[in-house]
Amino acid sequence: MHEDNSVQTPLSPFMEDNLSLEQKLRLVDVYFMATSGFIDVLTRAEAAQLVRHQSRAELSVTCKGAMGDLVIAIGAQASKPDPTLAEVEKFYFNRGQQRAFSTMLRNPSIDMIATFLLMSFYMLGACHRNAASMYLGVASRAATVLGLQHQESYFSVTSSERQQQLRTWTSLRVLDLLVSAILARPSSAPPAGTSDNLFNLIQDESTDRKDLVAQYSLVKIIDEIIDKVYGQKGVSPATAEALLSQLRKWSDSLPDGLQTQGVSASPQHPVQALSSLHLACTYYFAVTLTTRPFLISTLTARMARLSNGVPNGYAVQEHPVHAELASVCVDSAVWMIRACLDASRSDLLLANMCLMKAFVFAAALILGFSLFAQLEVDLETDAMFAGARDILQTFSARSSQAAHYYEILTSLTQTIHRQRQRFAMQSRRRSNAYVGQLFKTAEPSPRPQQDQSQTDASNDDISNLINNAKFSDLDMWMQNQPIFNNVPEQSDMVGADLLGWDSLDLGLWDNFPYMNQPPS
């Protein structure tokens, strides 16, 4: 995820009365769409009550008041671009943040944890991942102080208080583990302890929290994937297949209302539809995390074979089990992008979706690397890669992070087409022994970077896009990547000997195009 280092500009004068109650309630609706399946710290009725009474003095210095402000800020952040909403978003977030900090250390509470969860979610959407991680850390420390990881802490409270605590704890674990997996950072939340019993409580008592319960079950598997696959930097097919079996069992146990087949058919229920989409994309992300090392292993062998000029030979064998798991990885990325495109066609996607941007980009990298190493064009993978680029271009109107990812995919598109041109030329040279190239012009020198209007105009013609773009940093980086220049040993285990293990980590791509430059 990209870090926005831009300097914050002074706020324009804004009065709370400039926003009507009806407008506030519409932003509350957008908030629930944006956070569905990830955060559940307020009911719809509680959120509506908070925004109705924001100006009351008793709320001005409490976490409840901060939560009301943050609900509006997140709703404005996820809404379609509007100059007036930009002021609304900044005003309510700044005020909510100020209210949260005024009492945060004096009295840790469930409301404080919820407030810092909301601030973290907002910061992810604002492309401030470091601040988001720090806010998650504060929420996690408060949860530890309150003992939310222990079942005993729930015995002496009322049923409604217990449900609020369980929802808050579950939301914390979901967001913390997802952000940690995306950013490749350690989790800040306390260990689960006896929280499985707490999970059973919320599962038994809350029939209207099925999406959060399912998401919690899924991120527990993701936590195990991170530990077994990436924590040890070595994974066997048996381990990967066991993890995939857990994921399959999870998907088979989903309630009918959360099945993803109805996402595009239910725009009249946007919160439920987006919750299903969030669950589906998290599931596909988990599958790609499990199988990604095997994709890298397979691409290594494939590129070594193609580079040696034996596309159909046996000089470098792909491990058959690795190839099968690599196919699962690509298929999962395809399914994720297809689900997002279906949601986009149904007008379900919001203008800013902080976790979905990372999911889409991660899937697009998998598709792009796969296309780069293919001799023949896979039309479906090609179409889904282009679809991912279109989705991120749409998100880029409200997100510098999405704009950054879109630029990378544009460069990757050019690199893939150049690679195809090279493959075609090599094949032509090998297949024709009677005729060859007699005339060739010198390679043109790199042209100055085009302005945005020129680039946009050329996007309609991929040939112009390739010919007019300079030989990019991405071309150089891709050609020199260890995964495309090292022949893997014939081993059942994928591990530390694979030098390109982290080639698809989002953290690496956050620094593009400066990935190869030494620190100054």
Automatic annotation (TrEMBL):
- InterPro entries attached to this UniProt entry: Fungal_SecMet_Regulators, XnlR_reg_dom
Where are the stretches annotated Disordered?
A: 441-462
Q: Which UniProt keywords apply?
A: Nucleus, Transcription, Transcription regulation
One Gene Ontology term of the biological-process aspect is: DNA-templated transcription
**Can you tell which superkingdom this protein's organism belongs to?**
Eukaryota
A molecular function (GO) term: zinc ion binding
Q: Name one Pfam family in it.
A: Fungal_trans
Name the GO cellular-component terms.
nucleus
Q: Which positions fall inside the Xylanolytic transcriptional activator regulatory domain?
A: 132-205
Start-end of Polar residues biased regions: 448-462
Q: Which PANTHER family match?
A: REGULATORY PROTEIN GAL4 (PTHR47424), TAH-2 (PTHR47424:SF9)
Q: What is this protein called?
A: Xylanolytic transcriptional activator regulatory domain-containing protein
